[in-house]
C-alpha cells in the first residue's frame, strides 16, 4: 500500500471507521514505514491531548455580550413600534375606505357584472 493512500486513511483508522481488512493493511504498512508511523503517532498524540484538555469556560461577561449582541440584532431586524403603528393605521384606514366604497357603490357595480 502506498504512503499517500495510508495517510488518507489514518484519521479513519483513528476513528475506528475503517473496515477490518483495510485497517489490517494500514497496520501492516505502519510496521514497515517509519514516516507513516510517525504521522500515526502524532495523530494519536493529538487525539490524546484533545481528550485530556479541559473544556474552557467562557469569561463571566461572555454571555452578557452574546445577549446584548442578539438584542441589538433583533432591534435592527424588527420594525420599530412607531413604524408598526403607522402601518396599522394606514392599513386600517384603507380597509375602512374600501368598506365605505363597497357599501356605497361597490355592491351596485358588482351586481351589474353578474349574469342575471
Ligand atoms: Zn508509509
Task: Tell me the number of strands.
Answer: 0
Gross morphology is elongated
Average residue pLDDT: 90
Count of helical stretches: 5
Share in β-strands: under 5%
Alpha-beta content class: mainly alpha
Number of domains: 2
Order of helices and strands: HHHHH
Question: How is this fold's topology laid out?
Answer:
Blueprint: H1 3-14, H2 20-32, H3 34-52, H4 62-77, H5 81-113
Helix pairs in contact: 1-3, 2-3
The protein binds zinc ion.
Write a short abstract of this structure.
With 116 residues, the chain is an all-alpha fold.
Description of the molecule:
The chain has 5 helices and no strands. By secondary structure, it is an all-alpha fold. It folds into 2 domains: 3-52, no CATH class; 81-116. The protein is elongated. The model has no long low-confidence stretch (mean pLDDT 90). The structure holds zinc ion. Zinc ion binds at residues 3, 6, 29, 33, 35-36. Residues 3, 6, 29, 33, 35-36 line the site of zinc ion (ZN).
Question: Which labels suit this protein?
Answer:
elongated; mainly alpha; binds zinc ion; 116 residues
